[in-house]
Amino acid sequence: MTQNLPHEPIDNGLLSDKEPGPWEELNPGSTSPLLLLCDHANNRVPKSLGHLGLELDALGKHVAYDIGCEKLTRLLADKFQAAALLAHYSRLVIDLNRHPGDGSSIPVISDNIDIPGNTNLTMEQIRAREEALFWPYHNQIERMLDKIVSRGQTPILCAIHSFTPVFRGYQRPWHIGVLWDRDQRLSTPLLESLQAIPHICVGDNEPYHARNPVGYTMDIHGERNGYPHILLEVRQDLIGHDEGVAEWAHVIYSHLKSVISQIELI
């Protein structure tokens, strides 16, 4: 059984009634056990927070969202005919893949960019972001998992992320990374499958080492519930345009579909 998260959203004035809610659900009528999650789909900032004191060009960078991932998740949801959940607001407002209270949950600096709107926040201001954006998103994931379980299926979670081609002067060689912590039911066969593709550099827990734990989303909804799960990182320059994102949606779909059909859900 999935766990009940301790918070329900409240109307604290962070979002106006003319703004989108905290998330968007795709394919709510799906009967697939697969659930796709995109924690960093968008770079939107609530109007009440202005632009967090940032120039608009900063909100177009990776610090604000995972470039290419919204479209990639939409394409995968269509190919798998699976349910998906997309976050509507920037990770600079609050990072949905960080534990509340973690120093990176609401960053005051990211990739050497100061975030003025995140400095010297009161506990009330932090709580407002958690209640308006963080908990509604994660509560909805639990509801979607419960729906899969109610059909007698074991949920399978896949989180979609992207990474920058260059980090601190280092040219990252990987095209795609498969991140995992303790559960290897998906990661091991998917790594083997992807590594068999010629001319593709596949990272095993790269470009980030995901052990202990693999972010809030997979830790709470995957590891702690005992559901098979995986986090995929695709290099931004490969999915930052229509042709590339379509190509990688096909690659991920074909290999992940094969792996899911063969794993034992125990």
UniProtKB/TrEMBL annotation:
Residues 1-27 are annotated as: Disordered. Keywords: Hydrolase. Pfam families: FGase. One of its GO terms (molecular function) is hydrolase activity. Coiled coil: none annotated. InterPro entries: N-FG_amidohydro (IPR007709), UCP029730 (IPR011227). This is N-formylglutamate amidohydrolase. The lineage of its organism: Bacteria, Pseudomonadati, Pseudomonadota, Gammaproteobacteria, Chromatiales.
